[in-house]
Design a protein that fits this description.
Strand content: under 5%
Order of helices and strands: HHHHHHHHHHHEHHHHHHHHHEEE
Structural class: mainly alpha
Strand order of the largest sheet: 1-2
Length: 458
């Protein structure tokens, strides 16, 4: 050592406290973590998903005997109160790339599902996702906030995400999906009965999410025939939940953007109804059992006509949204007729199913038509073969152009180019009670409950 080095002053290494509870990313990179939650500074700068290791508790060891898969519990970490969430919903901050909530008492499977939802599944809850930042923020951030305060909604979100993974061919145990689904519907029903205004945003999310969750039944080999008739009842739940809140209260939640649909021009739509379906209704005689329901059947036909009219304008985002929201327009009396297997109502449902084969980008609508159209044909028998000729012919087709040409009966038709959603034609799903609605009172809020529950609710 030379003299210059010997005379150099010694500086002790700057002491620092080791972090034992930093996030996984910081531990992997062996850097200090500031332990900010939900996202530490390092992960925020790197735009990475920030996850903290699960904290252990001093609980006694459990026996190795098998136990049922637990439902998603209420969180041990203090979640934001529902009322606080409502206040924050009024002004949406800029979207973030990672989920806001990674609860400490979720098992690894649940955490992986949350990651999959935040990165993949969220976009399939709206035909407008990826195009409107407000919609993206609602689906990527707001729904997770409300799910953190409502375990039944978290169960629904996990069920929906597990279904998506299964659809993609990834591992997703049916037992998990079934349990998540059962817990979600049970909690949803209880929340409706309690009618607590603080949970209305969660109920709105749930009414949409559970339409997707309930579509899983179409994909099971043992699914009951004509399950689509129960599925229509679930779709009606969206309008029923919206009727629980005033339009002003809905606006304050900041999530009303999810509940818009293309408006229907009844006079124009009526002109687009196929002549064979129109004759099916106009030929009803006074001694027919359906004579008292002619107006109901005609209303459903005009709604179907809006799909035909939209298809003529060209496949695109507006047709997508119109097909998906079709059940939300249907009168309750029509759904009752279909669930009672009244032939004319069921024929109209078959034509709607044919249109679902044109939906793109929404995985949970895929394949719902294939079995159900033939189930309807089996129910109605040879007498209705001619009326069902088009829906049955659509089933084996996969090319949207071929399906469209068959539906509109024009084999030289070429689809116009349609790229943008016609936002100016969107209207909020009505929240005013319909005439002659069966409306018992739950608490201080009118809620029109179905006269008969879907069989899988029971």
């Amino acid at each position: 050592m030379d003299g210059s080095e010997a005379n150099r002053p010694y500086h002790a290494k700057k002491p620092h406290r080791k972090s034992r509870s930093g996030c996984r990313n910081c531990k992997t990179r062996k850097v200090k973590c500031d332990e900010s939650r939900p996202t530490c500074r390092a992960c925020r700068l790197r735009r990475e998903a920030c996850a903290y290791p699960l904290t252990s508790t001093s609980s006694p060891p459990k026996s190795p005997s098998p136990v049922p898969i637990p439902s998603v519990p209420a969180y041990s970490a203090s979640p934001p109160r529902e009322t606080q969430i409502q206040e924050r919903d009024a002004v949406a901050p800029a979207p973030v790339q990672e989920p806001l909530f990674i609860p400490a008492n979720h098992d690894f499977t649940n955490l992986r599902l949350l990651w999959h939802y935040s990165n993949h599944t969220w976009s399939s809850l709206s035909t407008r996702s990826g195009k409107e930042p407000q919609i993206d923020h609602i689906l990527k951030v707001r729904i997770l906030e409300h799910a953190s305060a409502n375990p039944w909604l978290m169960n629904g979100l996990l069920a929906f995400t597990a279904m998506h993974k299964k659809f993609l061919g990834q591992d997703a145990p049916d037992a998990r999906i079934a349990l998540y689904r059962a817990n979600a519907f049970e909690g949803y029903r209880k929340a409706i009965e309690e009618a607590d205004p603080a949970t209305f945003p969660a109920l709105l999310y749930g009414s949409l999410l559970l339409c997707g969750v309930s579509s899983s039944m179409f994909r099971y080999d043992e699914a009951q025939p004509l399950y689509v008739l129960d599925w229509l009842l679930v779709w009606r739940g969206i309008g029923l939940i919206i009727q629980l809140v005033t339009r002003e209260a809905l606006h304050k939640t900041g999530i009303e953007g999810l509940f818009f649909r293309p408006k229907v021009d009844s006079s124009t739509s009526a002109m687009s109804v196929p002549s064979n379906l129109l004759f099916m209704v106009t030929s009803i005689r006074s001694d027919d059992d359906d004579f008292a329901s002619v107006d109901t059947l005609y209303s459903a036909l005009k709604l179907l006509g809006s799909l035909y009219g939209e298809l003529e304008r060209g496949p695109g985002p507006t047709l997508n949204l119109r097909i998906i929201t079709y059940p939300t327009f249907l009168p309750q009396e029509f759904i009752d007729m279909a669930r009672k297997r009244r032939p004319r109502a069921v024929v109209i449902v078959a034509y709607y199913l044919a249109f679902t084969k044109l939906v793109s980008g929404i995985w949970w609508v895929v394949d719902i038509a294939e079995k159900e159209i033939f189930n309807i044909a089996d129910l109605l028998g040879p007498k209705y073969d001619d009326l069902l000729r088009v829906p049955k012919a659509v089933v084996p087709l996969s090319d949207p152009k071929d399906i469209s040409r068959l539906l509109i009966n024009n084999h030289t038709w070429e689809p116009p180019e349609v790229d943008e959603l016609r936002v100016d034609e969107l209207v909020l799903i009505p929240n005013a009670p319909e005439e002659n609605a069966h409306a018992p009172i739950i608490g201080n809020f009118p809620y029109r409950v179905p006269r008969e529950e879907p069989s899988w609710y029971k």
